[in-house]
Amino acid sequence: MRRPRILARPHASPMPPGPARRHLVISGRVQGVAFRYATREAAEAHGLRGWVRNLADGRVEAVLEGDSAAVAEMVAWCRQGPPAARVAGVVVRDEVPAGEPAGFRVLPTAHEPV
To answer: Is 9 a catalytic site residue?
Structure first.
């Protein structure tokens, strides 16, 4: 598997410094293209905590938590995804940091996003 593309900071949205948490629902051709595993690898490279999972309707859901600059870079990465993905849209919801456990997990498929 190819290494995930990690975007440089100029492509990320500006965010105030400090901790941040974003909840994403990604649509398009995002299942069957190693999106979850590439997301985990990219999130770990950014030092983020959280999780990613497939949704039964073909979308991918993720929660990213950590340094606000790293979260912004990761949101930008999710707008493109791994090379085989074709991202059609990303819905991003700001959330209060909840203290996700250390590490970034790939969770089982869910029927509905949280």
So the answer is: no
CATH no. of 18-97: 3.30.70.100
Ranges of each domain in the chain: 18-97
Specify whether 36 is catalytic: yes
User: In sequence order, what DSSP letters do the residues of 33-55 get, joined into one string?
Assistant: SSHHHHHHHHHHHTT-EEEEEEB
Q: State the catalytic residue, choosing from 21, 36, 40, 53.
A: 36
Q: Over the stretch 46-86, which tens digit does the pLDDT of each residue have?
A: 999 999 999 999 999 999 999 999 999 999 999 999 999 99
The pLDDT tens digits of the residues spanning 88-105 come to 999 999 999 999 999 999
Q: Which residues pair with 67 in a beta bridge?
A: 19
Nearest to 39, CA basis, from 97, 111, 106: 106
